[in-house]
């Protein structure tokens, strides 16, 4: 399904390309048909790509982050350590104006948790409580299970849900479609009187890996505890139910919120040589869920965008405008980093030329998703031709991210997301399997190269992107 979405985007992209390239003024083309304004960028782009792919620096830095600090849920000492580590490392890289910008974040604590089938035969279920869930009573909840495969089926069986644990056993299609059952399923079940909710892991079948992720309680329903279970365990429960057997499950969770705590977005810059107050932001989120190592989501996005600045510094490339890396806090369960940045930088949002976020993994890069006016789209598409050597030259409509969203919306600026080959991402997303070994150093280096070239050229264009 994700592939289908991509195909649709590619087709749309082809249509857009067909119209915009034809509209370009003749004087902007060399006799060979190439955009003349792009020519000065071929040499720095080649240097940026060459430096990025000549070693495994990005992957090694990610391995250090994930091996020595590990996962980084908002409000944990681990995230605090990661923030301090990033500040220290950015300074060591020679970035300018390195700082931690304070943001208050929620602190959700998982506590111990378990689930088991009690009837018809005892069997431990592999589970992960959903982020922001409430606890069960200390002895847990034990109840008969009602399995539904859609919200419509829940509505049809609403009278059966009272006093039960509702399992949403919905096979993964794509993230947006399937994550609905994780985010709003618990409150839908609670309205019908359910005492707890279970959700089939949001992802393709893995190797008995549960996928956590945030739920959103509705204000008009009781808060009931909710957990994700593996696809294998969901299938087992379904088979038992299909044979007509009664299923009883016991769920125990200690999850709760403590008071908000101080956290921070980490910021570093390469100041622009001519227009330092105009800014290109590249970014990823430093917080992660509390399982796995937060390598793909989103340590990798942090490192490859940060690499853009490190590579420019290393090669002594200083663009006309400022390039700023932001490592966001609290993307996973609150979005406070993105909101805090918008509020703290409100006065300079009009000077933001572009905001880019990488939060879809750092697998083989394909190019970028982009949202902006036609002129900006055309420019970006031409810049991306500099990435044809690493096959990362595809620009498709639609680019953004959860953290840049609030600023992009308020500042009405173009936005962009790194686009990568996506088949592996949702297999390990929010699971104990999100570790650095799933990431290929060469693919990751190419992601860094792609971001570096795009950020450098956009920041250096004689005219502001889109004008
Ligand atoms: Zn993420």
Task: Label this structure with key terms.
single chain, 467 residues, alpha/beta, Aminopeptidase, Glucose Oxidase, domain 1, 8-stranded mixed sheet, 14 helices, 24% strand, binds zinc ion
Structure description:
This protein is an alpha/beta fold and 467 residues long. It folds into 2 domains: 2-107 and 259-460, Zn peptidases (Aminopeptidase), CATH 3.40.630.10; 111-254, Glucose Oxidase, domain 1 (3-Layer(bba) Sandwich), CATH 3.50.30. It has helices spanning 2-22, 42-53, 57-68, 77-93, 151-156, 175-183, 185-191, 231-242, 295-314, 336-344, 374-384, 405-411, 425-428, 441-460; strands at residues 96-109, 113-119, 123-125, 127-129, 141-148, 165-168, 196-200, 226-229, 248-253, 256-270, 275-285, 321-328, 352-357, 365-371, 394-397, 415-420. Helix 3 crosses helix 14 and helix 9 crosses helix 14. The model is unreliable at 1-26 (pLDDT under 50). The structure holds zinc ion. Zinc ion binds at residues 285, 297-298, 331, 359.
Kindly summarize this structure in a few lines.
The chain is built from 14 helices and 16 strands. The longest helix is centred in the first third of the chain and has 21 residues, at 2-22. It has helices spanning 2-22, 42-53, 57-68, 77-93, 151-156, 175-183, 185-191, 231-242, 295-314, 336-344, 374-384, 405-411, 425-428, 441-460; strands at residues 96-109, 113-119, 123-125, 127-129, 141-148, 165-168, 196-200, 226-229, 248-253, 256-270, 275-285, 321-328, 352-357, 365-371, 394-397, 415-420.
């Amino acid at each position: 399904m994700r592939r289908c979405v991509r195909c649709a985007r590619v087709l749309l992209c082809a249509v857009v390309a067909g119209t915009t390239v034809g509209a370009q003024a003749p004087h902007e083309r060399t006799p060979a048909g190439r955009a003349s304004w792009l020519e000065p960028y071929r040499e720095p782009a080649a240097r940026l790509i060459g430096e990025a792919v000549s070693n495994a620096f990005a992957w090694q830095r990610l391995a250090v982050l994930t091996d020595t600090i590990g996962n980084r849920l908002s409000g944990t000492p681990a995230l605090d350590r990661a923030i301090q580590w990033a500040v220290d490392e950015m300074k060591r890289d020679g970035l300018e104006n390195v700082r931690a910008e304070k943001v208050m974040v929620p602190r959700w604590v998982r506590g111990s948790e378990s689930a088991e089938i009690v009837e018809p035969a005892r069997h431990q279920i592999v589970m992960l409580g959903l982020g922001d869930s409430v606890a069960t009573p200390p002895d847990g909840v034990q109840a008969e299970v009602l399995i539904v495969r859609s919200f419509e089926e829940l509505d049809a069986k609403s009278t059966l849900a009272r006093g039960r644990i509702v399992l949403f056993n919905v096979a993964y299609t794509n993230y947006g479609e399937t994550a609905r059952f994780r985010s709003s399923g618990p409150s839908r079940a609670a309205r019908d009187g359910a005492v707890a909710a279970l959700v089939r892991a949001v992802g393709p079948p893995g190797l008995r890996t549960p996928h956590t992720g945030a739920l959103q309680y509705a204000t008009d329903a009781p808060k009931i505890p909710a957990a994700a279970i593996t696809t294998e365990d969901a299938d087992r429960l379904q088979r038992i139910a299909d044979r007509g057997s009664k299923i009883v499950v016991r769920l125990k969770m200690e999850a709760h919120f403590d008071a908000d705590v101080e956290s921070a977005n980490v910021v570093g810059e390469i100041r622009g040589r001519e227009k330092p107050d105009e800014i290109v932001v590249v970014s990823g989120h430093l917080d992660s869920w509390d399982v796995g190592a937060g390598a793909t989501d989103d340590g990798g996005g942090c490192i490859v965008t940060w690499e853009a600045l490190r590579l420019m510094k290393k090669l002594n490339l200083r663009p006309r405008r400022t390039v700023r890396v932001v490592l966001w806090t609290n993307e996973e369960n609150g979005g406070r980093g993105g909101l805090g940045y918008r509020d703290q930088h409100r006065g300079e949002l009009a000077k933001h030329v572009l905001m880019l976020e990488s939060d879809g993994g750092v697998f083989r890069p394909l190019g970028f998703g982009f949202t902006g006016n036609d002129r900006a789209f055309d420019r970006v598409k031409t810049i991306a031709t500099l990435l044809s050597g690493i096959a990362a030259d595809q620009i498709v409509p639609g680019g953004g991210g959860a953290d840049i969203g609030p600023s992009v919306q308020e500042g009405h600026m173009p936005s962009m997301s790194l686009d990568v080959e996506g088949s592996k991402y949702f297999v390990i997303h929010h699971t104990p399997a999100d570790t650095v070994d799933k990431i290929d150093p060469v693919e990751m280096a190419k992601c860094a190269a792609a971001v570096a070239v795009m950020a450098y050229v956009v920041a250096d264009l004689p005219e502001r992107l889109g004008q």
